[in-house]
Amino acid sequence: MLRHAGVRTIFLLVAAIFFALPAARAQIPGLPSLTGTSASSPAKTETQTTAEGASLDDLIRILETEATRNRLIESLKAAAYQPGAQATAAAQTAAPGVDDLVESVPEHLAAYTRSGVEVLQMTAQEALDLARQGLNFLSGARAIDLPRVWQAVQPVTIVALAVFVALAALGFLDRRIGRWLNARANPRAPLKRLLLVCLATLADVASIIVSTGAGHLTALAVYGGPPNLNQALFLNAFVLTELVKIGLSAFAMPHDPALRMTPFSDGQARYWYRRLALVITLLGYTFLFVAPVVQTNSSIAAGNAVRFITVAIAFAAMEGLILANRVRVGRRLQKSYRGGSRTIQARFYLFLGTIWWVLAGAFVFALFALWLSSPRNGFQFMLTASFKSVAAMAIGGLVASVLKKVVTRGVRVSSGTKDRFPLIERRLNSFIPKVLFVIRTLVVLIVVGVILDAWGLLEFDGWLQTEVGQRFTRSLVGALFILVVAFGIYLTVSSWVEYRLNPNYGSVPTARERTLLSLFRNAFTIALGVIVLMLVLSQLGIDIAPLLAGAGVVGLAVGFGAQKLVQDIITGAFIQIENALNEGDVVQLGAVSGVVEKLTIRSVSLRALDGTYYLIPFSSVDQVANMTKDFSNFVADVAVAYREDVEEVKAAMQEAFDEVRASEQGINIIADFEMLGVELLGDYAVTVRARIRTLPGKQWPIGRLYKQSIKSILDRRGIEIPFPQTTVWFGEGKNHNAPPLHLAGLVSANAAIQGGSDGSPAAAKPPLRTPERNPDGTLIPPAGRDQLRHDGEGDADEDGEGRS
């Protein structure tokens, strides 16, 4: 099924090529038309073209064969009926009414049918004319005078032998130079590889020049004078053909893989280079040397026959090469899509991999057909346009490849620069891909413009010279210059802020400096972006005055509609002016406390102790509690039992302070120990308070270390740290005796009081105690249990109150 579809596609492309040949000829000056009229201007006949300035040689070539003479007669006949055709066209352009439109539908269908038939007839006529032209060329082969040609070629053989021997000898030196350059190539340095490729190409060009000089010296030495006409033809053919092959070698680099800039494997590079070089050699030496010699020593028809045979062989070889690599090249083009990519580029290459061989075969066939129909003007035009297109695509692809490798490799800065400016490398690597994307886009546009200019579809050079083209070029260059300068300014200012905030170089920045520099960098970035945007728009020819007026109106509307935003900005500005908080401070804003990580013109970002990130707008901040402003204090509250001596407790607290100050954390203490005295007489403990002044934010580690020290010292001194206790009082009688404790609902207690069930008196039993339990339900052992007396007798204190 695919084969049939491909055959149909080839047929349609060939038909389109034949149909487009007359229009192409009409655009090429001096090119004769095979059908007599062109599609774009039917009134311009071949007779008129000849009369306007065609050379005598063109007229002779037109009248040389019977086919061209017949076409000239047909052109004259067509010109005779041209006025009537113009009247008919004028009548058809009149505005038809409704009835005329209904009646003209069949006429339009008939006209379209006739046009289709005429297209087929023209295509068939073109094919027949091309076949006749080929037979005419081939018929001249009988006029070749081989003995005379051989006699003319004999003096060239010695010169040619000297040239090729010198080229082979210099080939050893070229290979050594190539291996030396190949060993110094670095895949990660595309610019260096490009320089090495240029050096290798210059070495090959030098070998061609030296070999040509050897040919000239051989002619002087053997024949006693400069090269004759045939020898000069050979030397010219040698130079031009070998230079084209050197260009192909520089593109493919079949023998120096490390210098290869194109995505070919070693086998593919050698495969395509050998076959294309063979075709170039065949065409180059034939057209530049063999055919002129045959034409000079035989006839023009004989020279045309040699050219036709060579072109036919080259055409067959190229078509066979395309068909032989149809699947291989198609799979390579579809590689990214088969690998899973579904981008637009991958889909395009998927489609191109399916039809590439059809397009390439049709292009080669069009070249062959145009050479047959007009070997001087048409073929030269198409060949020149093809070479320009290939060169533009090759150079554009090379530039794109180098840019891609630069983006992939990135920019590397020295370690010293990275230490001073930690973010400069990341900024450069984030900006360079955007710049290179713009450059690649410009390269693609330039390549497309050159290709269109080469084929005569767009006068790219002429457009650039017009006022519009010059204004567009100036605007584009100016906008790019503004962007580059703006990025340089941004990079300089940001790097200076980073250097100023870097504690390893220069003076250590304070928290206030860090906050203000960060806010300055953000404000400067926004202001620079707005200014650059306005300048770029102005450079592109856009009037920015309405934009500025509109921005003012929009700003006013935002000010009225977004009052919360305005409140955020104003409150934040006053907070910064009053220096209430800075980056790195530990603050409490409302119910949230944490470290200030970031400050902007409208919000503050806090990081809590558990890692929670809070973003708080300034409009919701009614008070700021900064716990690290200038200095910090640790308040040491030590609770001891009532029986302990307060002075002994103070001495213990001073001893704990001395231990902390002597430790590694002691450098964070900035003042002597400040004893404040007894702070609280609590229900079960006496609280003694002291204070330690530390650096901002160091009160928490100092406090932890001090608590650890005071606990150890109190244990060594035997000073009790009390825990909560409860005193239960059951009252007392007038005789100062506490009444007995009655526990209702306990049968065992009643039995103990009233005696046994047989009426015997009860034996003396120990009083019943209520078991005491911990909060978790476990029993408290007797040793650690307060003695609860049920007989009403308790220990009497100084007041005579019973306590238990």
From TrEMBL:
It is a multi-pass membrane protein. It is found in: Cell membrane. Residues 635-721 form the Mechanosensitive ion channel MscS C-terminal domain. One of its GO terms (molecular function) is mechanosensitive monoatomic ion channel activity. Residues 523-563 form the Mechanosensitive ion channel transmembrane helices 2/3 domain. Residues 752-804 are annotated as: Disordered. Its main location: membrane. Residues 794-804 have a biased composition (Acidic residues). One of its GO terms (cellular component) is plasma membrane. The keyword Transmembrane applies. Keywords: Cell membrane, Membrane, Transmembrane, Transmembrane helix. It comes from the Bacteria. Residues 565-628 form the Mechanosensitive ion channel MscS domain. Residues 385-463 form the Moderate conductance mechanosensitive channel YbiO-like transmembrane helix domain. The chain crosses the membrane at residues 152-173, 194-214, 234-255, 276-294, 306-327, 348-372, 378-403, 435-456, 476-497, 518-538, 544-562. Belongs to the MscS (TC 1.A.23) family. This is Small conductance mechanosensitive channel.
